[in-house]
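Write out a sequence, fold above all:
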Amino acid sequence: MERPALRPGAEARRVDGVGWGPQTPGVSTLRERLADVPSGGTLRWIGLRPARGEAMREVDEARATVGRGLEGDRWRGRANGKRQVSLIQAEHLPVIARLLGREAVPPALVRRNLVVGGVNLEALRRLRFRIGEVVLEGSGACAPCAKMDDALGPGGFIAMMGMGGIVARVLEGGRLRVGDPIEALGWPD
């Protein structure tokens, strides 16, 4: 990656492997900017997959267990894996529906555990964040799988590209409830 042209008096340096950034007093680094996520989002939907291939079960609340995931979800039990909980942004569901020529896409069809709204989920992908009582750590993107064509119809996989959400680890367990607030907590230690 080439170093960018900087304003007079600034000195370029590598910023946490993300890119080049200015090193000027009073100017935030890219890492600081990425951690400055406005709060205000909420948990809008919770779903559990009881077993492989079974339909998602909508619930109003669920319990998250450290290092495991959500009780009653088929992914629970994969100790310390990065895919303990999957999340998708509510604002993406109408876009996916439009791309497929549908009126709506019910959250259960995209097979994610949590639907959140009012916060940029991609901004939380590498951060720690709280939803209600639970502290999660974003551990990566949740890319669509081939099942999306079966669930959503032809083109479902393509419609979800770039909008599949994120996966996260459970760092502090507790109860999740629809309506719980979301708060960014910053970078992992």
Remarks:
- Residues 69 and 84 are 4 Å apart (CA to CA).
- The mean pLDDT is 85.
- Residues 92-99 form the longest helix (8 residues).
